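G.,

No rush on this.
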Amino acid sequence: MRTLLVERSAGVTTITLNRPEVRNAMNVTLFEELRAVIDEAGRNPADRALVITGAGGAFSSGGDLITPPDEAGAEAEPIPMTTLKFLRGAVADAALALHRCPKPIIAAVDGLAAGAGVCLTFACDLVLASETARFSLIFVRRSLCVDFAGSWLLPRIVGLHKAKELAFYGDWIDAQEASRIGVVNKVFPASEFHAGVRAWAERLAAQPPTAIATNKQLLNNASQLSLTEALDAEAMAQALCTASPEFAAAIAAFMQRRTPPGGPSSAPAK
């Protein structure tokens, strides 16, 4: 890996965006490597929960506007054509990988998250932030529009009018405001951030994987389905859950009045 660090421990796979010299700006290589790691983790039974974070005191400053998207040394093309290929290729592939991955993904945000870096947090299943975190859909300040699936994800998180406010002005918001509008699940004091992220990730890793995967798929797809279609999708997913070995183990624990793995006794502090 040229742009990422990947560490595995106790079922938790931590993916660190590792371009601190440019505050983890995302180039073609990073998007391609991110897609590859997410796809691999989705297939690997040992990877139970994923954490995406950034090196060097920042999450990500967004898309790399300095390094040309075409890093292969091919003949230069007009910027609009290069941009189109970049967004339809590496960027779209990474966004779809995050959406389709059956494993739960946490964005752990310490420092700034801007532009496509914020959209990366939207694409994760949970967002945990240090009290020092700051967020901005900074695209408009560069005369650009939202990308990396941000236009699809953000209205579903905060509502259409709030999404337009964030996109039209590109203002910076702090971690507490991001939590208030629903972008962040929990804010930690800086001194507790890493331990807090680890506790949330380890609890996710202990949860039954079939139930997590089916819940993620149902919730991601819900806005595109009618009520009838959603009920049918739930029935199919529930049938899959009841056929899993985790279901049998959970029922046995219930009958024996034991707490199943991932239960309330291992919940992180609220």
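When you get to it, here's the other one too:
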Amino acid sequence: MIGRWTIPLIVALAAACGVPFVAGDYLIGVALSLAMWIALTESWILLSGLTGYVSLGHVVFYGLGAYVGILLWGEVGGVLAVGGAGLASGVFALAVGYPALRVRGPYFVMLTFGLAEFCKYIVIDVEAGLGQFSRLLLGGPSVLQLYYVVLGLAAAATALTFFVARSRLGYALRAIRENEEAAETVGVPVAFCKLAAFALSAIIPGMVGALMVARSSYFEPSQVFDPIVSFTIVTMAIIGGSDDARGPFLGAALLVLLSEILWARAPQVYMILLGILLIAFVLFAPGGITGRLLSRPVKVKP
């Protein structure tokens, strides 16, 4: 199975590296957006796909990374700013993860959504206290440079999810998803495994947030903490298949393609079609596209 999927993924990565040589600025921007969504969705799978703890607050790591990135970029340079953004998101996940992961099911969904909104308004309040209502980043990297870095993060997130899913940690996370009490009874360190997955899932979104705010050269809290980011990640994971590293490629590619075709021309049709797709996959293909290809359903904790 590994050989069957590894070669196509390597071919896809090589093709992605060659996009700037054959495409114009518009297509490079589309490819950058696709790489961003793949990186974010892969990181979401590390926690929610493997444990069944569905998070609607993944944007908090993206937004926090964007904020730390915009603060550090002019002071320490781009490389350290991006690294600091990932570190800050990981530390934040460790700080809030233990109490947050003590709740389950719909309560965890609501908690993560509320946590993202809480952090957004904390940042807004801090910025207002500093007399800042938005921030500009001047002299940022080019779109081409950003594309290759975000593509590298997408590849790193895919590799991380792939290897974690096949490691002892991955098997422990799946055991938690199937029956948390039984997993704890047989000796699985449940609290440690969930916290480790939560922290790992936060680092790359923080780095992506710092890079994407450098692309726009503009930071505005309501924009980077937009809950639509979390909803889009979940939708891509469900459509592609939320149990495996291969799913985000399919889910993100489908939705980015639909977005480019319909969003500019008929955004209402796009949102309606997105809702229909999500309902159809939840009802008839809970394993997503990947699950259909493998004929292996994916369970999600109710």
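Confidence is low (pLDDT under 50) at residues 296-302. The chain has one domain: 2-225.

Enjoy the weekend,
O.
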